[in-house]
Design goal:
about 270 residues, 2 strands
């Protein structure tokens, strides 16, 4: 057996079990939005992973591999990381839909020049993307969807017990299908505003054609910005409904990933 032994007996066994359980949970939190952003200190993630790991150890019979530092044990740990990253990535896909919608709306408004650092990815994103991301985050937390998602993380130890963590082709294809839903949801969020902005652009184009003395750039940009703001105000109730549905879809997609149980050993 290749495992460190400090001579503490059962206490040491429980410690290695806790560390092993924290592997999947830590990978999930790193890959997930809100919990994996750069603004969250690593110490907070470790404390969060340890807190959830204590609950998992109390509620399930998960056991660490007997030879944790052997080749089989390392493969088992890698399987835990794979499942954790998959769970976090599925949630990340849902949170990417508003950013996609903001790209479409901002491009039509001419607001893509106004960018800010996205706290989720650390990359540049439109200012509207920050607005949509904040709305989604608030609704997600207000509905308690994060608690349901934590419950699914605990359930993942029943669906994918250690040693049977290979997702398989079907689940990998399902994750790709979730990406398709993300694109469809992003287009749905952006569609009302883009239609209004299309009308604004057509009107400004007709005015610019009928009155060449008008400066199309000085007329089109303010009209596009004002039309976009008006479209966002008019579509605010629809945005709320879509964000609520998106939060439910995020939890549902994670549950679908766990429905069919464990796969083959890694």
């Amino acid at each position: 057996m290749i495992q460190l032994d400090f001579g503490f007996g059962p206490l040491e066994t429980e410690f290695w079990r806790l560390v092993f359980v924290m592997t999947r949970i830590g990978a999930t939190l790193v890959a997930a939005p809100l919990f994996g952003i750069a603004g969250v200190p690593p110490q907070v993630r470790v404390i969060g992973a340890g807190s959830l790991a204590v609950l998992v150890c109390a509620w399930t019979n998960v056991a660490a591999p007997a030879a944790l530092f052997s080749a089989a044990g390392v493969l088992c740990v890698l399987g835990e990381v794979l499942v954790g990253l998959a769970l976090g990535f599925v949630l990340q896909l849902s949170f990417a839909a508003p950013i996609l919608a903001a790209e479409l709306i901002g491009g039509a408004m001419g607001m893509n020049v106004a960018t800010a650092v996205d706290p989720n990815s650390g990359a540049q994103s439109p200012a509207l993307g920050q607005y949509f991301a904040v709305v989604l985050s608030l609704v997600f937390l207000a509905l308690g969807a994060h608690l349901q998602w934590f419950a699914l993380i605990v359930d993942s130890y029943r669906a994918f017990p250690p040693g049977h963590t290979w997702l398989g082709a079907e689940r990998l294809a399902a994750i790709a299908g979730f990406a398709g839903r993300m694109f469809a949801t992003g287009v749905t969020i952006a569609l009302p505003a883009c239609l209004i902005l299309l009308v604004v652009q057509i009107v400004t184009g007709v005015l610019g054609r009928s009155a060449p003395s008008l400066n199309l750039f000085s007329l089109g940009l303010p009209a596009g910005v004002l039309g976009g703001i008006a479209a966002l105000l008019v579509g605010a109730p629809v945005l709320t409904d879509l964000v609520v549905r998106l939060s439910a879809d995020a939890v549902e997609q994670t549950a679908e990933l766990l429905q069919s149980g464990g796969g083959s050993a890694p």
